[in-house]
Amino acid sequence: MKRKTLRASISFSAIALAGMAFAADASAACSRDTLQALADTYVNAQKAGNAAMIPLAAGASYAENDVAMNIADGVLSEALTVDFTRSFHDTTQCATFTELTAATHAHPYVIHTRIEATEDGKASKIESIVTDEGDWVFGAAEHLAVTRTENWDEIPANQRDTREAIQAAADAYLDNWGDPELPVPHGTPCSRLEGRISTATRDPQGQTCTMGAFPEKLNVSNRRYVIDETVGAVAIFHSFPWLDAGIAKDPGTPASQSFRVENGMNRYIHEVTACTTENCSRGRPGGPPPDAQQ
Ligand SMILES: *[C@@H]1O[C@H](CO)[C@@H](O)[C@H](O)[C@H]1NC(C)=O
Ligand SMILES: *[C@@H]1O[C@H](CO)[C@@H](O)[C@H](O)[C@H]1NC(C)=O
């Protein structure tokens, strides 16, 4: 895709003084309804191709694939045919997450978006991993076919995991990339959906989440979370080291992983990863991870 190189990197013009007041609020608890409304507005703005629909806090920032830019210059300026979205909300951090699949759009996308909000529902930080053709195992149609069949519904209150348990299951998966000996709590069934590849095709009722070891130890840094206990979900935006041949090994390429956790164990793992070079791994000694061979 190489949006990164095509689109100018324009810092969002901050209204510095007013912004300081809101920065202190960024981690305040806020209501689910407020976050739900903001996520809905974000999806509607993407459908309309009108970024101005999103209420912004003073000093708000916007970035795609870790590149800061003016929100009006990004993918929100394109009216996308949106086939499916899944959002969840973190009332503790006042943040929301949306997975958006535009498979039937002329230019297909799969986008993960993380929005930090003020208590009154204005976006203070918006960051998206925007993937399209040429990104890591990209395939919006295949992604859509799988994601829409999955159950990420609300979990009965007496069966919910704590925030800590949900985060621990997800972190263990990423920590394992740095130390293949570390155990990861995957449930049965458990499946991974990475771009167009679903491990569920191997065995829909089985545990197919376990990863083969990478050729070297990876330090997955720069983790930013959205955690929603009501649906057992966590999204982790992070840097994926090593994968992308076009950049330095560390910290790596922009990526997002979302997890559905049930009873402390991973049930679904979704990944989108942006590449600076087509398909990321071309030319990388050691080749892509084992799963990419499918
Ligand atoms: C992982 O990367 C982060 C950010 O670059 C760094 O602060 C940390 O020390 C690294 N950890 C290891 C174990 O290398
Ligand atoms: C990138 O992946 C796509 C889809 O598999 C493939 O058609 C294309 O040839 C790949 N490009 C390169 C440069 O490997």
Share in β-strands:
25-35%
Mean pLDDT: 89
| Backbone shape | globular
Q: Please, how many helices?
A: 5
Question: How many angstroms does the end-to-end distance come to?
Answer: 22 Å
Low-confidence stretches: 1-26
Task: List the bound ligands.
Answer: 2-acetamido-2-deoxy-beta-D-glucopyranose
Order of SSEs, N→C? Answer: HHHEEEEEEHHEEEEEE
Report strand order across the widest sheet: 2-1-6-5-4-3
**Class based on secondary structure composition and strand pairing:** alpha+beta
**How many β-strand runs?**
12
**Rg on CA atoms, Å:** 18 Å
Biggest sheet overview: 6 strands, mixed
Walkthrough of the structure:
A hairpin with a 4-residue loop joins strand 3 and strand 4. This protein is α+β, with helices and mostly antiparallel strands and 294 residues long. The protein contains five helices and twelve strands. Residues 1-26 have low confidence and may be disordered. A six-stranded mixed β-sheet has the order 2-1-6-5-4-3, sandwiched between helices. The protein has a six-stranded mixed β-sheet with strand order 8-7-12-11-10-9, with helices on both faces. One 2-acetamido-2-deoxy-beta-D-glucopyranose binds at residues 219, 221, 251. One 2-acetamido-2-deoxy-beta-D-glucopyranose binds at residues 278-279, 282.
